[in-house]
Amino acid sequence: MSPLQKRLNPQVNQIAVSLIRQFDERVSTIPNILKLTLGEPDFDTPEVVKEAGIKAITDNFSHYTGMSGLPELREVACAFVQKKYGVTYDWQKEAIVTVGGTEAIAATLFSMLEAGDKVLMPTPIYPGYEPVITLAKATPVYIDTSQTGFVLTPELLESALKEHGQSVKVVILNYPSNPTGVTYSREEVAALASVLKKYEVFVVSDEIYSELVYDETHTSIAEFLPEQTILINGLSKSHAMTGWRIGFIFGPEDYVREIIKVHQYLVTAASTISQKAAYVALTTGINEGQVMKEAYQERRDFIFQKMTQFGFEVAKPSGAFYVFAKIPAAYIQNSMDFCVDLAEKAQLAIIPGIAFGQAGEGYVRISYAASLETLTEAMNRLEKYLNI
């Protein structure tokens, strides 16, 4: 180790590249590997949105926007969440366009956290929050939901808030959930809100999959807790725009005013060309995601039926595009070992549950953001591996 290396921020030593990416890279070199690993839509960005991006380039929209993003985009983004989810924000003061949901999470948490703070999160959960918390010298606290159908109950939440007391500054919610696909009914959201409103805590609600809810209507907790909630959303999942990197932060003016400082020094502003495309996605292309949603629902039903038939215990997902399944007792129970063995012997790659926290051990995550033809082949390979 060089002398300078020793002077790097020690907090960086406490984090690592996510196990999702590590595993994906590990198995990518296997010949003929079929991957259902990453949470990325297999659809192309809608044509009307692509055309808007091309036009932005030819019209020379290649300069900075303001820190908060294009005024017209913030305005239609606020109109979108108001129309879809009944939450109201002032586009001039309560909305920021970000470089995807990832930067929205980072800017929000960095603006809130300091050493000694605790952050409550239901687990299993997407692994993108903990590293930011760690870099901010705060402490993640996990609430295990494996015994409650992967649903954070009011009782579990209240117990954790009481146990950790004033040191809790933030509660993170992610629904529909990555990795489980589980989401919350309106009644369940209201019940969580009734607990949270009794405590002086921020609620960071990552609702990036809100447009991919299959069996009911998505309810944002910001509807019930507008003064406590920072709402995060974006176009990566709803409009197959992962590479365009457009996310949104919505929240009370007093909080957004502070978050934008962090956002500015992280990225200055989101891509102008992407913002022009995003404007069209939320206006002309507002319903373009419906075809994708219908396809995902058909795929969900297929994978759920197959996995259940194969003996996996599955909490039926009601949103997003993931199935989280418990490995049957007759097979390798260490999720990483199971997934490596499956990849090497059957050329099928799915994500080990341990990537989403200790509560995910013994489970696997399958992304069904792939064609039915691909999913059929994947299930054939899994069936052969299981030797059913």
Order of neighbouring strands in the sheet with most strands: 2-8-7-6-5-3-4
Radius of gyration over C-alpha positions, nearest whole angstrom:
21 Å
Structural class: alpha/beta
The N- to C-terminal Cα distance equals 51 Å
List the helices and strands and how they pair.
Layout: H1 19-27, E1 34-35, H2 47-58, H3 71-85, E2 95-98, H4 100-112, E3 118-123, H5 130-135, E4 139-144, H6 154-164, E5 168-174, H7 186-196, E6 202-206, E7 229-234, E8 247-250, H8 253-267, H9 272-281, H10 289-309, E9 313-314, E10 322-326, H11 335-346, E11 348-349, E12 351-352, E13 363-367, H12 372-386
Pfam families: Aminotran_1_2
Domain Aminotransferase class I/classII large: 32-382
InterPro entries: Aminotransferase_I/II_large, AspAT/PAT-like, NHTrfase_class1_PyrdxlP-BS, PyrdxlP-dep_Trfase, PyrdxlP-dep_Trfase_major, PyrdxlP-dep_Trfase_small
List keywords for this structure.
388 residues, 2 domains, Aspartate Aminotransferase, domain 2, aminotransferase, alpha/beta, Aspartate Aminotransferase, domain 1, PyrdxlP-dep_Trfase_major, transaminase activity, single chain, 12 helices, seven-stranded mixed beta sheet, NHTrfase_class1_PyrdxlP-BS, Aminotransferase, 13 strands, 39% helix
Offer a concise description of the structure.
By secondary structure, this protein is an alpha/beta fold.
Structural write-up:
- Its EC number is 2.6.1.-.
- One of its GO terms (molecular function) is transaminase activity.
- This is Aminotransferase.
- The chain is 39% helix and 14% strand.
- It has 12 helices and 13 strands.
- Strands 2-8-7-6-5-3-4 form a 7-stranded mixed β-sheet, with helices on both faces. Strands 9-10-13-12 form a 4-stranded antiparallel β-sheet.
- Helix 2 runs antiparallel to helix 9 (272-281), helix 3 (71-85) packs parallel to helix 9 and helix 4 packs across helix 8 (253-267).
- It is globular, with a radius of gyration of 21 Å.
